[in-house]
Amino acid sequence: MTDAPTSLPCPLWRRLIALIYDLLAVVAIVMVVGLLCQLATGGRLITTGAQTAIAWWYRPLQAIVVSAYFVVSWLRGGQTLGMRPWHLRVTARDGARPTLRQALIRVIVASAPLALLALAPVLGLRGALWAAPIAWAAWFAVALFDPRRRALHDLAAGTELRRIG
User: How big is the CA angle at 94 (ends 90 and 100), to the nearest 5 degrees?
Assistant: First the structure.
């Protein structure tokens, strides 16, 4: 795919609305994976007692499955479910499809603020829950100042989000 003359950098507001749509898809994916894991463990995925414990492999599995949704979507057609109704596409700088390397870098950098949730013992749960969205706001605020409207994960991966059609 090459960069069509009508392909324009994506405004931040469109990007954020598409992200809300994708959030709905991610919630559905997480719910299905959770259900399958509960069925596979005979309902023992989460144990309760003196302390609640979640199987050690569950969170990494969820992260892999959700990341795969984004990476596969970007590699197959450059669009997630949320990007389609808003006519957005992830491309490499030259307008071509992103490479696997670019898609992986993009998903890792875009999800990096989730690591702030690990600071809950230090910041407290409320502080950690606020730290992640504040970091994401900073990630996307970069697009307000970049002439090609690229967010931090686009700059790191060498990609951009474009309006198509």
Answer: 50
DSSP codes of every residue in 81-148: TTTTTTTEEEEETTSSPPPHHHHHHHHHHHHGGGGGGGGHHHHHHHHHHHHHHHHHHHHHHHHHHSTT
Other residues' Cβ atoms within 10 Å of the Cβ of residue 94: 8
Cross-strand bridge partners of residue 9: 162
Distance between start and end Cα atoms, the chain: 13
pLDDT digits 0-9 by tens, 84-109: 999 999 999 999 999 999 999 999 99
Residue 6 pLDDT = 52
Q: Tell me, what's the pLDDT at 28?
A: 97
Q: Are strands 46-47 and 8-9 parallel, antiparallel or unpaired?
A: unpaired
Task: Match 């990476």 to its residue by tokens.
Answer: 71
Q: How far apart are CA 14 and CA 21, in angstroms?
A: 11
Low-confidence ranges of the chain (pLDDT < 50): 1-5
Closest listed residue to residue 164, CA positions, set 9, 47, 56: 9
Residues 6+ apart with CB under 8 A from 30: 62, 65, 66
Q: What is the pTM for the complete model shown?
A: 0.88
